[in-house]
Each structure stands twice: as C-alpha cells, then as structure tokens.
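Here is an idea for our session: we take a single protein and study its fold together. To get us started, please write out a protein record for me. Start from the sequence, derive the backbone structure tokens from it, and show both lines together. Go ahead whenever you are ready, and we will take it from there:
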Amino acid sequence: MQNLYELTLEQLTNLVTGWGEPAFRAKQVWSWLYEKRVDSFGAMTNLPKDLRSHLEAEMTLGTLEVVTEQISQDGTTKRLYRLPDGQLIESVLMPYDDDRRTACISTQAGCAMGCVFCATGQMGFARHLTPTEIFEQAMLFARQLEREGERLSNVVLMGMGEPFHNYDSSLAAIHRLMDDLGIGARHITVSTVGLVPQIRRFGDEGVQVKLAISLHAATDEERVSLLPVNKRWPLSELMDACREYVEKTGRRITFEWAAIHGENDTPEQAHALGKLLRGMLCHVNIIPLNPTGGYHHGPSAGDRVDRFIATLAEYGVTATVRVRRGIDIDAGCGQLKSAVIKPGEIAGGA
C-alpha cells in the first residue's frame, strides 16, 4: 500500500482519474488531508463511497506507528514512532504560554555526528529519513492540535539526526511544511552542528527559514572534545561560512550553547566566544545541559550563566537562556534516544 502523504497533487489527480473519477476529486482529497487534516478515509464525507473504499484498500494515511507517548509535567509531549522498516525515532511537541505550539522533529534514525553530550549522538547512525517521514512527524502533531481547536505554529528540525547530513530530504520536508501545512518560513528553524558546505549551500536556497548552529565551544581544542565534526571543519572555516550566510541572506544566525558546568561556562570561554562572534548578526541561545546517560557532566548554575551572558554583552553579542522543557521525560535538547536497528534486524516492542 502507498502512503497518500507521499503524493503531489498532480500524482493524486493522476491516481483518481485512473480510477475513473473526475479530476476535482483529487482537490477534495487534498483538502481533507491538509486543510481539515482528517485521520481516516471515512471522514472524507463529500467523496463517493466507492472512492473512499478504493482509497482505503490501496492507500495509507501515513506510515509512522506510535509506539509510546509520554506527557511531561510542563505539558510537553514526546512520541516514539516505529518506521515501516522497524527503525525507531522520537518527536516532541512543546506548548508555550504565548500560545506557540512547536514541533521538534527528527531527520535521521540515529546520528553520525557523535557529539559526546547528546543521547542521539551516542546511539550511532542507522539511516536517513525520507522527506515524507520528516514531514509526517509535524503533520501528526498538526492533526492532533486541529482536533483540539489549536494549530501548529512552529517547527524545529532539532530532533534526532543532523538535518544537513540529510540535506535534500530535509529541504524537501521544509518546503512541504510551508506549502502543505502553511507554516511560515520564519517559524521554521533548521539546526546543524556545522557542516560548512551545506551552510554555504543553504545560503543560496532563498528560503527565509531560521538557521541555528550548535556551537557549544569557542576554541578548537574545546570544541573538538565535544563535537568531532570540528576536526573536519574547524571554527575558522565555520565562522567564514556563517558570515557568508549572513551577508547573502541578511538573516540573523542563532548559536546554540549547551552550558556545561566547569567546561564551557568559564570566563575564558565567554571572552573567546565574544571575540569569535563580535560584529556578526547573531544571537546566542544558552541551554543549561540536559542530562543523558552517556555523559556525566552537569548543567551550569544560574549565576555562572548570568556572568557568561554579561561577558558576551561586553562584545555586543546578545544571549538569552532557553526555557528547558520536557526534562522529566527525556524530551529536552540532546535527550532524544531510541534503538538503532542494524540492517537485517527487526525491531521488537518498545
């Protein structure tokens, strides 16, 4: 059976006309999918019964299977999905007091980047997700919110995986988020650990999507110990690509900084970061480190973070502390983790 979410409107039109239906039926189906966001063919009430039966017999409304769902005390929802080949991924929906509803979605099963403080990085890499598998995570949250009288307002590609390692699929999913779900480009953020060629390429795409760089250290020596990718693209190359991106797009870059007590929250790192970013159109998003089983350092204390922010201000660099969400269910940044299924293996129950 084919996933209906994989079809373009043109492909859907060819499908229904091939079944002897008039072309306008495809637009009706499209409306049920992306405007009304129904979860069954039976809900498509203005379609002939025969067409609904045909769709039911030959198509599926998505392929992601919810294995478990957890809800945090702060209202954050985390879902574990099983993919058709048995791979497992996680996605998160975060509610905010200003009525934002943000989906954090995955682009890969596992991750090849090996960042030492990230649970996904500790897993290893299984495979890239398809554009539809990436998009469908947001679609399912949008569908849920629609039933509750709310709407999905923001999407961040900050879940499992490195979006720019799966560049083409991530970009295709971003276009679908904009075109099919109606999420504004400026309400979508893509995060990368610093794949320099892809950052340069992304600057030429002409999309107004926000870019976030997982930086976490301001010297090569410190960054290599946290993010192995820095061996391939050291800070000098990364900063050149970031400045080129800002010059091309006129858009501000966000630098993500997991504040680790006694590691990267020192005055020395703060001054180094201020010098590194001085004069660039950017903002530093500080996230006190979220705990993971494979990394035993702790988050920075509030007074150390305050001094860090004050030091950055001396260089004209703005910074704020991100609100931590879903920590009690391991749904925070760097905490997403599931089993990596090797080729030939079958995933068991979770």
